[in-house]
Amino acid sequence: MRMSEGVEWAVHCCLLLDWMGEDRPVSTTRLAAGFELPPPYLNKQLQALVRAGIATSTAGARGGFRLARPLERITLMDVVAAIEGPDDAFQCTEIRRRGAGADSPESAFARPCAVFSAMHRAELAWRRALADQTLADVRANAERNAPRVGEHVRAWYARN
Amino acid sequence: MRMSEGVEWAVHCCLLLDWMGEDRPVSTTRLAAGFELPPPYLNKQLQALVRAGIATSTAGARGGFRLARPLERITLMDVVAAIEGPDDAFQCTEIRRRGAGADSPESAFARPCAVFSAMHRAELAWRRALADQTLADVRANAERNAPRVGEHVRAWYARN
DNA sequence: GTCTTTCTACTCGGATACATCGTGTCCGAGTTGGCTGGG
DNA sequence: CCCAGCCAACTCGGACACGATGTATCCGAGTAGAAAGAC
Q: Which positions make up the signal peptide (chains A, B) (predicted)?
């Protein structure tokens, strides 16, 4: 069970869009250069962010991507759901009904599968932990590590 | 990010091994028949359980698999780690160091990546929730749904 | 009748193909900005 | 000097290959049990 690396890219791109400011959008080409990533594939992930309503895109010359709302209102859960999709990691196939359980009365399956319930509970804990952290929290932690990172990024883009 | 369905199979097989009792092992063929699963592939998952020390295998005629310890001492985390492997779902590739961050001083990267920290925190919540639930808890929940499931399973295997 | 030996059938275990999803790439439609020509 | 129209460059967006991981399968090594034969 490995999470798509597009999630990592998307979160870093959101932070970078915030540091670059809202005055002008940032194109896929420039974003990709900022992290040395393949531009077309990064574009695919950014499209997913747009579809999820996290970012907005403007076409044409001097176009690119903008954040749709401030980082305080974007959670890690939003980004993960946008890239990975809405499906749960653990998919119950109801094997309890097959084979030895095939001739059981229907009442035995009235309540959800115990295995699924247990796995689902753990997954809810994961999702809640993701939803409790906003990208503003992540930004604050990143700036605690490197206080001038925003300024540094803008300077790098000014000369590239 | 989809979890391998082998996890579901493994948990159900552990419960079934418990219901079948410890007096004699259950072979891959019989286990597969009990859930209508492809025997060779199920065997692969069971081997993973043996490697992880959750089950034991005995070869030869009348051989098969046994639980290595009671369900009270097997957590969902144990089974997931046995099937899915020890790697974390979110893999940090340190893209913060590339591109715009390439010319930053090394001190900026002294502490771990903020994105990784946030994702890792959520993943720890998931792992903890898995480790807090034993298979005995799952069995108790299953038997609350269908009280006579153990008896039912033994009867089915007696005539198949 | 009992023990030893052999043989057979059954079991696990790892090595081998196939399918699906994630990864990476490309090209076309649309839009913006700038340039040019005229008024 | 100002404005309108045209052109060109740049952008996103979806459609198209490649590779890796998960899924499914097969066959061989090893062992327990049973049966047969000798004592």
A: none
